[in-house]
Amino acid sequence: MIVFTSDIDWAPEEVILDTIKIFEEFNINCTFFTTHKSNILDKCDRNIFELGIHPNFNPSLIDGKNIKANEIIDSIMSIVPEAKGVRSHSMTSSSLLLNIFKKKGLMYESNQFIPYNWNIKPFNSWDGLKSIPCNWIDDTHWLYNKSFDYNILKDYTKDSLIILDFHPIHIFLNTDSQDTYDKAKPYYQIPEKLLSFRNNKEFGVRDFLIKTLKEIKKRELYTCKMIDLIN
């Protein structure tokens, strides 16, 4: 089974729309973990897309700001009240946070990363939450110094579970390295400026995504949303 996910990470509307259009073109599911209010996401086709939450606990944990976890979660849940799943920014998790997620009505969390392990399985947490690891992330891929010009589905079988995590900014930029991203990052909220930094020389995130989607359609492989894994 193949599951596409995307952490929005405060991307501007044009950048989010760019990602949505790619998945719509191939009619392939994606679960978006939301950081902020987005009219584009509000209007997206729920037959193709699922919305979860992507709360950021770093201001409290890293910067020492006095913001309670409940407040952070309530704030993002007010934007996406339909959410049944959570992936924290930076994959922050703890036993106490899992209990809060459950009390807020969430059904699953995805805060474990097991890179390139195609034998992952969802598992039940003690509090009734389903925990669903992921095994591929776009920015981590280049940190491993791996090329994007490869076939992740080469050895795929029906018993495999591949859960990919993309970021709209890296799809938009076709990011291939940290250097490409660092040069564009100061213009994060200016899509027309970001476009001038799009990588057109090396195989990048966008190329990899489109290549993978094409193969899925060609081989008629099954994809689903994260919520479908627990249903």
Low-confidence stretches: none
Question: Radius of gyration over alpha carbons?
Answer: 17 Å
SS-based structural class? alpha/beta
Helical content, roughly? 25-40%
Number of helices: 11
The shape is globular
What is the succession of H and E elements?
EHEHEHHEHEEEEHEHHHHEH
Q: Overall pLDDT, averaged?
A: 95
What is the CA-CA span between the terminal residues?
A: 14 Å
User: Beta fraction of the residues?
Assistant: 5-15%
Beta-strand segment tally: 10
The largest sheet is:
6 strands, parallel
Protein architecture, described:
This protein is of the alpha/beta class. It contains 11 helices and 10 strands. The chain has helices at residues 13-26, 39-42, 58-61, 69-79, 95-103, 138-143, 168-173, 178-184, 191-195, 205-219, 226-230, and strands at residues 2-7, 30-34, 49-53, 85-86, 108-109, 123-124, 130-131, 136-137, 162-166, 223-224. Strands 1, 2, 3, 8, 9 and 10 form a 6-stranded parallel beta sheet that branches. It has a 4-stranded mixed beta sheet with strand order 4-5-7-6. The chain is globular and about 45 Å long. The protein starts with a strand and ends with a helix.
